[in-house]
Specification:
Radius of gyration: 37 Å
Distance between the termini: 116 Å
GO cellular component, one term: endoplasmic reticulum
Number of helices: 3
Number of strands: 15
Pfam family, one: COPIIcoated_ERV
GO biological process, one term: retrograde vesicle-mediated transport, Golgi to endoplasmic reticulum
Largest sheet: 6 strands, mixed
Order of helices and strands: EEHHEEEEEEEEEEHEEE
Structural class: alpha+beta
Helix content: 10-25%
Protein name: Endoplasmic reticulum vesicle transporter C-terminal domain-containing protein
Length: about 290
């Protein structure tokens, strides 16, 4: 839908004025991506799917080099010959560390002392479509190399009367690398899609809802490595182990060789000579 038909704002438990969190930028665009943009978004989806579907340690997910950063969507190369049919919403909002609801619904926002309304929500039979694509969605300062769960998410709907809800649990996270230290906010997401059908008792306001809450826990991710002294001790123990094992193997080989030689000599036949001596393969034994 074009930007004139929708509104985006935040409502939290403090009942703060929706405009005090900041102003988001709205930019009319086309929902269909050009080929270069589609390649970029598919690449982002691939990373997102890999991190969601495969088992990884938290360090493996968070410790990404700067080369692994998914950069911004490239500029559109091919301009469609049709009116704008979508709205790109972007910007930065300052949130309170309490539970809140960031939502995108039909109509612009009007704030009252006890809440707010969206103008077009009072009109019936409004043609809507909340298919959406998320390029970037994060909490806190931007940290290079960290891929967030909702980045690369795409939802396509045929029915305009839907409530797409994302339930987000935000966890403060400290990432300590060898040469840098960054504070970020990781989050987990649960999704719920609800169709609105008044005849069946399924009521609600169509839109996209990001319901977030702050966790009381804090996660510390730290990279550790051995000191030089510890490394030398471990290296010395490895070398000593190799020397001891090689000595044991050498001794075993000598014992096996001696045993084989003794058995060989014991099995040789003894030839008696006329002078009272016995010969075993060149060796003379005096009797």
């Amino acid at each position: 839908m074009p930007c004139k038909s929708i509104g985006a704002d935040i409502l939290d438990s403090t009942n703060q004025n929706v405009f005090s969190f900041g102003i988001l930028q709205e930019e009319d665009t086309w929902f269909e991506l050009c080929p270069s943009q589609r390649v970029h978004f598919d690449y982002m989806q691939h990373h997102n799917s890999y991190l969601r579907n495969e088992y990884h340690s938290i360090a493996e997910i968070l410790y990404k080099s700067d080369h692994a950063v998914v950069y911004s969507m490239p500029e559109r190369v091919i301009i469609p010959e049709k009116p704008h049919d979508a709205c790109r919403i972007h910007g930065v909002l300052t949130l309170n560390k309490v539970a809140g609801n960031f939502h995108i619904t039909v109509g612009k926002t009007i704030h009252f002392s006890r809440g707010h309304i969206h103008l077009n929500s009072i009109f019936a039979n409004t043609q809507t479509n909340f298919s959406h694509r998320i390029n970037r969605f994060s909490f806190g300062d931007h940290t290079a190399g960290i891929i967030h769960p909702l980045e690369g998410d795409e939802k396509l709907f045929d029915n305009g009367q839907v409530m797409m809800q994302y339930f987000i649990e935000v966890v403060p996270t400290d990432v300590q690398k060898f040469y840098s230290h960054s504070k970020t906010y990781q989050y987990t997401v649960r999704e719920n899609l609800q169709l609105i059908d008044i005849d069946k008792g399924m009521q609600g306001v169509a839109g996209i809802y990001f319901k977030y809450d702050m966790s009381a826990l804090r996660v510390l991710v730290r990279q550790d490595r051995d000191s030089i002294a510890h490394f030398i001790v471990r290296l010395s123990s490895i070398i000593a182990g190799i020397v001891v094992i090689s000595g044991m193997l050498s001794k075993c080989m000598h014992l096996i060789g001696d045993a084989c030689c003794k058995r060989r000599y014991n099995d040789e036949p003894i030839a008696r000579n006329n002078d009272g001596t016995a010969t075993v393969k060149g060796a003379v034994i005096v009797s």
